[in-house]
Amino acid sequence: MTQPDKTTGSMRVQRGLAEMLKGGVIMDVVTPGQAKIAEDSGAIAVMALERVPADIRRDGGVARMSDPEMIEGIQAAVSIPVMAKARIGHFVEAQVLEALGVDFIDESEVLTPADEAFHIDKMKFTIPFVCGATNLGEALRRISEGAALIRSKGEAGTGNIVEAVRHLRSILGDIRKITQADSAELFGWAKLLDAPLPLVQEIAETGRLQVPLFCAGGIATPADAALAMQLGAESVFVGSGIFKSDDPAPRARAIVEATAHYRDAHIIAKVSRKLGAPMTGIAMDEINQRYAERGW
Amino acid sequence: MSARARIGVLALQGAFAAHATTLQRLGVSTAEVRVAADLEQCDAFVLPGGESTTMSQLLETSQLFGPLAKRIAAGMPVFGTCAGMILLSKGIADGRPDQRSFAALDIDVQRNGFGRQLDSFETEIDVLGLDRAFHAVFIRAPRISRVGSEIETLATHGGEPVLVRSKTVMAASFHPELADDDRVHQLFLNMVQG
After folding, report:
1. Residues near A227 by Cβ (< 8 Å), separated by ≥ 6?
2. Whether residue B82 lies in the annotated active site
3. Chain A residues closer than 8 Å to B62 by CB
4. What confidence tens digit (pLDDT) does each residue in A190-236 have?
5. A260 and B34 Cβ atoms separated by less than 8 Å
6. Is the C-alpha dihedral spanning A182, A187, A193, A195 positive or negative?
7. CB distance A80–B53 less than 8 Å?
8. Contact: B12, A39; criterion CB under 8 Å
9. CA of A32: how far to CAs of A26, A66, A183, in Å?
10. Minimal CB count within 10 Å: which of A74, A236, A242, B177?
11. Is 90 exceeded by the pLDDT of residue B98?
């Protein structure tokens, strides 16, 4: 029998995987063992990387794409989707990740940027991309470059949710305002946001971003995850928050449950018990490098 | 059954919102189901796509698995897509050892049988009972490896079944909720409204 016509890598297929990841928790892992713990705890996907953001922050130096062998080890360890990070603008790292067959590429400000002017042309890839954003203009520029998923940048590796809240409120607040704007005002919005007019017009019509919006950067507790979800995020990324805590597995499970039942305070209270200490975390005035300022 | 059916959509994880939007376009009311109490008012049920391992665990911890299994066994119509199909299947290959299923449909499936995201695809399929092709989106899709003798195959891709049903259970390895085409959901509502 001849194979029927089929299309891979289309925007619909890329955004389709992002749809499937809604209502879940994507966990940063640095070893196959951690990936197993994440999958056992109900993660919908894992992000394979060399060091969690808290360690990148501590160690300094240049942070790059992970060793392919390490990514393959994690792919072999779990059956859920595996994501990996490429540096902003480093399209060859992205090509390598696509060659490895990862399920999603994060063009991430947590790694040291490779290009100070341009993000990756994501339209050229079969694998979907997720990109960070601090405001709606940034989100729409990434979508116009082909991102299939947007996440708040937050401030990775701090265990402090304040920046993610700021970014979610900014993105979702501007979407709410745009739905109230008249057609003439939309030109002003496109200019103000430095974003393509057709994307702004589409938001005015639908009241939502073209792709799913997840939260990342600073989630450390089940209540943090539920806060992001109640604010309007559709899933959460947890980086350092799990494997930098005292007892990762129970905390991972609790964050998964709190994300699924994000409006039910009784369930969030129940799962928040006996988790040991969360990661210590850092206040924003204690850090000297803001990752969220990387990218534009 | 009431004139206006109420369809529960499992909302613990996955593409539940897209299913609800499609069903509402067809004029039925929907309810997001996360705990057993949400299930009581439902005449039929949808298990969406997402990660079947995650959903299986959350069904347990949310104490929803037992009540839902009871309703399905009692004949409540159910439609499962992708991960939802895995949760309805009798046999699961390449799942987790602790992964549970409702075993409501006499088929075996292989998780991610069509491959990773690099292999995810969209294509046109012919569906029994529909007058023109349906645009089917397959995302890290499960493969149906065995179909029981009582099971009707409604659509195939490359000679393999991708949409199947029994008297009360329908399952798709693709995602009709991503298609901007309500006809497969209408087929399910025809089963619900008999």
Report:
1. A161, A165
2. yes
3. 257, 260-261
4. 999 999 999 999 999 999 999 999 999 999 999 999 999 999 999 99
5. yes
6. positive
7. yes
8. no
9. 15, 13, 51
10. A74
11. no
